[in-house]
Write a structure and sequence with these properties.
The complex is a heterodimer of chains A (365) and B (342). Chain A is an alpha+beta fold. Chain A is 23% helix and 35% strand. Chain A is built from eight helices and 20 strands. In chain A, strand 16 and strand 17 form a beta hairpin. In chain A, helix 2 crosses helix 3. Chain A is globular and about 75 Å long. Chain B contains eight helices and 19 strands. With 342 residues, chain B is an alpha+beta fold. Chain B has a six-stranded mixed β-sheet with strand order 6-7-8-3-9-10, sandwiched between helices. Chain B has a five-stranded antiparallel β-sheet with strand order 13-17-14-15-16, with no helix packed on it. Helix content of chain B is 23%, strand content 31%.
Chain lengths: 365, 342
């Protein structure tokens, strides 16, 4: 088991800086997700932790020991690339035991470790099966078993579920998390899928252009995004932004949104007039005839439990999540009421969140 | 635009029945979505309508005319494929104009120009008309591919998973756009997909299809609220509907013959223990932002329910009381027993 610590980690490839000075600590036993679009530096960071890539600058500590320049094999970390890469000519037990065989472990001990791993993964009944006939989920379990059997200090996983369709992926997320709860090993999980990160992680590091924009629990990054990038990347549909220009005073409980006063959580900083954005999650909007912010219904998407209603306002399109029982007509004019305690405010220039009573402990990475 | 009617269509490939006695009427101006997993017979159904395949039994009527044995070219259909297949050496304009320039149609150039410009406007790609097709983003390319169908005014548009190769954000944008365009044009669309969100959000009616058979046809709301079988119930809704063997719910009165009870996640309420007899244990709480998914263990079965993340938190291991609202009852074969119980 291990704590992983990254200090001022930087990686450049020629002109291009892939990772620009990351700092974070992953506590022992944490399921830590690195989330971001392709090219954000998440995989490069993971490869540096694994020892597959050397940093340009900075340090990596494993349980307090500096491993920045140690060989990958010496780090006692299991890297799971692609859950589906199994040896087709071997049966399940041989696939799982292969890393131990390579280490020269006695056969009886290997058999014992394989059996134990299979029990944790609940695939004992598959041990003598050929891998070629297995279902996608079972193949994934076998590949995971191959990583687990060495009893590494930590697991590093790079988009392991990327190849699966959406519904199956969510099912596997539940299984991976359950497994994590059973074995308790520190896990670093790279993905571009916010739902995977939200569903499994204890902590999420949201990355953009080589920088960590925010680190927090799933609920923190969702409720108190540190930047417009995070607010947009997390949530489906993402947070709505309504732009306006105004100055702010600490202690204000409303902002002048165009000519309308909109209540917001108490503001905690002073600012000269600048382009700002109100950030509103779709589920924090209600339709109220009297509300001064108005728009025309563009579309309604039925989702069973809820529906997503898109409304065109003078300041941009807004998606609202309403109960599916609400009746909505396309083309009708509606007033939008916001659940003001949950509103966010952003400085459009920097993209960063403005401090309010709602922002609480969220800090910029 | 027109009605399209399939009557008792069967199509076999060797010993496999890809489509089995399928009957379906697509009404003028309707957005009908066939929803099913791969291998369900969705694409074969489309190909039978176009005339790329001919049925072993049954007939295809378009606008009151039997076209079962007509060649594809004479059926007046536009097809949009899963993979956008644009001509890479042509501009967006020429790609869009291509179907109108076919020798069989001989549309005059000024009319072509008008149609192409209107279509580009509709799809928000008017500024890209002079770009080479290869210089477009994935989303733009798929718009052009859809546009190539829209420049014509066929009886029906057939679409085979046209959004499946796009990323999630683009897909949700184009879903809205496609629905808007369909409403504006009053177009008749038959759209096939395995994605329940596409079906729920765009369809006037959904046909749920499996193993070549149409299992249920209805509005998204009808199918979601009143599924005809446990399979159909499981196809719509995320998280998926919960199923429990009826014997585990002896405290709930169910119609005779009930084997399985289906409970939508939003119809499973949990609360602090208060003397109720249905008691479950919280296994895990999943934080998805706008809501929590609470995974519960009830007599060895896993159930999922929704919880407001800002209400009093539930913790793993905690015991809670369960209450069912609108349970759905299914018989041994998975068919719905329609009597509602409360």
């Amino acid at each position: 088991m291990a704590q992983i610590r990254v200090e001022n980690l930087r990686k450049s490839f020629d002109q291009f800086t892939a990772v620009q000075g990351s700092n974070f600590t992953i506590d022992d036993g944490t399921f830590f997700a690195m989330l971001g679009p392709s090219g954000c530096g998440k995989t490069t960071t993971l490869r540096m932790i694994a020892g597959l890539e050397l940093p340009t600058d900075g340090r990596i500590l494993l349980d307090g020991e500096d491993v920045t320049f140690s060989r990958a094999a010496a780090r006692d970390i299991a890297f799971v690339f692609q859950f589906f890469a199994l040896y087709p000519h071997m049966n399940v037990a041989d696939n799982i035991g292969f890393p131990l065989k390579c280490q020269g472990m006695p056969r009886r001990e290997i058999r014992q470790r394989v059996a134990e791993t299979a029990r944790l993964l609940r695939i004992e009944h598959l041990l003598s099966r050929k891998t070629s006939g297995l279902s996608g989920g079972d193949r994934q379990r076998v590949a995971l078993g191959r990583a687990m059997v060495r009893r590494p200090k930590a697991f590093l996983m790079d988009e392991p579920l990327g190849a699966l369709d959406a519904e199956f992926r969510h099912l596997m997320c539940g299984e991976l998390r359950d497994l994590h709860d059973r074995i308790g090993a520190t896990t670093v999980y790279v993905t571009h899928d916010q739902l995977e990160a939200m569903s499994m992680a204890d902590q999420i590091a949201v990355m953009n252009k080589g920088r960590v924009e925010q680190i927090g629990s799933p609920q923190e990054v969702y409720d108190r995004p540190a930047s417009m990038f995070v607010a947009d990347f997390i949530g489906s549909p993402p947070m709505n932004f309504l732009r306006f220009e105004s100055g702010l005073r600490s202690g204000d409980r409303a902002v002048a949104f165009h000519s309308v006063n909109v209540s917001v959580p108490e503001i905690r900083e002073d600012r000269a007039s600048a382009p700002l954005a109100l950030g509103i999650r779709p589920e924090h909007i209600r339709f109220t005839d009297a509300a001064p912010v108005r728009g025309e219904v563009f579309g309604a998407e039925y989702l069973g439990t809820t529906q997503i209603v898109t409304v065109d306002t003078a300041h941009g399109r807004v998606a609202a999540r309403l109960p599916s029982s609400a009746s909505v007509r396309i083309g009708e004019t509606v007033g939008l009421e916001f659940h003001f305690e949950r509103l966010a405010l952003f400085d459009v220039g920097s993209g960063l969140a403005i401090r309010t009573a709602n922002e609480g402990s969220a800090r910029h990475g | 635009m027109a009605d399209v009617i399939l009557r008792n269509i069967t199509k076999r490939f060797g010993t496999v029945e890809a489509v089995r006695e399928l009957s379906l009427a697509i009404n003028d101006g309707e957005f009908l979505v066939l929803l099913g997993p791969s291998g369900a017979g969705k694409t074969t159904t489309l190909r039978l309508i176009t005339g790329l395949e001919s049925p072993d039994n049954g007939s295809v009527m378009i606008n009151g005319r039997d076209v079962t044995h007509d060649p594809p070219g004479s059926r007046d259909i536009a097809f949009v494929f899963q993979q956008y297949s644009l001509y890479p050496h042509l501009t967006v304009y020429d790609n869009l104009a291509f179907p109108l320039r076919s020798p069989a149609r001989r549309v005059p150039e000024p009319i072509i120009r008008k149609r192409v410009e209107q279509t580009a406007e509709l799809l928000h790609i008017a500024s890209k008309l002079n770009n080479r097709a290869t210089r477009l983003s994935g989303g733009e390319m798929q718009r052009v591919a859809i546009g190539r169908a829209l420049v014509r005014d066929p009886s029906i548009y057939l679409m085979d998973e046209p959004l499946s190769s796009l990323d999630a954000k683009l897909r949700s944008e184009l879903r809205l756009e496609l629905k808007r365009i369909q409403l504006e044009l009053g177009a008749t669309i038959l759209y096939v997909t395995h994605d329940q969100v596409e079906a729920m959000t765009m369809a006037s009616r959904i046909g749920v299809i499996r193993d070549g058979q149409l299992l249920q046809l209805g509005t998204p709301r009808e199918i979601y609220e009143s599924p005809s079988s446990s399979y159909v119930a499981s196809r719509l809704g995320t998280p998926q509907i919960n199923f429990l063997p009826a014997r585990l719910l002896s405290e709930v009165a169910v119609p005779p013959g009930t084997e399985t009870i289906g409970i939508r996640t939003e119809h499973l309420k949990v609360g602090a223990r208060n003397g109720g007899r249905m008691v479950g244990r919280v296994h895990r709480v999943e934080h998805l932002g706008e809501q929590n998914h609470v995974h519960l263990d009830y007599k060895g079965e896993m159930l999922v329910t929704l919880a407001d993340p800002h209400q009093q938190p539930l913790n793993a291991g905690q015991e809670v009381e369960l209450h069912l609202v609108h349970p759905l009852c299914f018989d041994r074969a998975g068919q719905r027993i329609p009597a509602m119980i409360h």
